[in-house]
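Schema walk-through. Below, the input block comes first and the output block second. Nothing else is stored per chain. Lengths vary across the set, and this one has 153 residues.
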Amino acid sequence: MWIPAIGFPPEMLVVCLGIEALWQFQLHSVYVPKLGIIEKIFNTHTMHQVHHAQNLEYMDKNHGGFLNIFDKIFGTWKELDESIDIKYGVTHAPNSYNPLVILTHEYKDIWIDMKKSKNWYHKFMYAFAAPGWSHDGSTLTIKQLRKSMNKND
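--- output ---
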């Protein structure tokens, strides 16, 4: 609502929302064929499948909403390997269909983690370090899990 309020024509907003809805459709489809050169620049359904995967090799990858250049710059880009069977979802899903619980469960979990230590640095790290970080090593980040997985191979 704020876009028309600052002067943009409502028709323009409707057209942009329509284009965005079409893009979201292709992002969340496994039936669209690969898009060739477009995949080198833009976030497409194959990259978005990686983003939504629980597989250890895919976790914490492909965060870009529209362009994938920042994932490539920061080392978080991963191409879809069609030989890997993807398991979709989050690793610690809330046991609820309540939208408020779904939107806030991760903040609750961070709060619980922060209460595990009285050290202010640890509390800061629970809030801002990589997911899975723990002051006592009781849980591991994705990088730590990948490293331990590679040692076991």
